[in-house]
Amino acid sequence: MSDAILETRGLTKEFRGFVAVNDVNLTVRRGTIHGLIGPNGAGKTTCFNLLTKFLPPTRGTIRYDGRDITGMKPAEVARLGLVRSFQISAVFPHLSVLENVRVALQRSRGGSFDFWRSDSLLRAFDGRARELLEDVGLGSYADLQAGELPYGRKRALEIATTLALDPVMLLLDEPTAGMAHEDVDRIVALVKRVSAGRTVLLVEHNLKVVQGLCDVITVLARGSVLAEGDYAAVSANPDVVAAYLGSDAPAAEPEAAHG
What we know:
The protein is an alpha/beta fold and 259 residues long.
């Protein structure tokens, strides 16, 4: 079995002549937490959308778990175990926290979400749903309407619903965006916990989060790979510092905007 679970070669995306992602070669090793970072406009989100098939590449290839997925659709790659979250929290606000997770678990029945099934049949998913809620620290919130959750807890719920799809590889798009400090710490601990036995690729703007989580970091700038390595290596790289803060800036801890 190859050490690489996700690989791109020459991955490129152009929008009417603007090159958003330019010849990116990315290798994510199985069982690692891999960070994808970069300053505003670096191409992080576009690259993420290419990997999860929400955008087709202009050219280049994407291989997941030894299979070429370049031409696949998002639902097809999700069924292979490559599952993503989104930068904006996406929950059903008028369903309970438990019901949100149950909707994701119902996907295991096939193409139907079974909204019209009897309560007794749907409650067969409740045990696993409660286990997932405990895993993300939401066990005591199960009966609360999801729309009433604080923002940080909504992100935890989104991770629970993502885990309900039983991912082999989890892609997290800015999991701590917009959070207060205490929520950031909670999500960092959560990502560490759920990464056991999985591979995680995350786009993140908070470099302290990246420092605490990631085994390997790939830095994008202007759509291209600028640097790669562990946090110590990339944070000391003068090209990375210049990309974040300008060429005359000291080698401080940069913090990227969304990209």
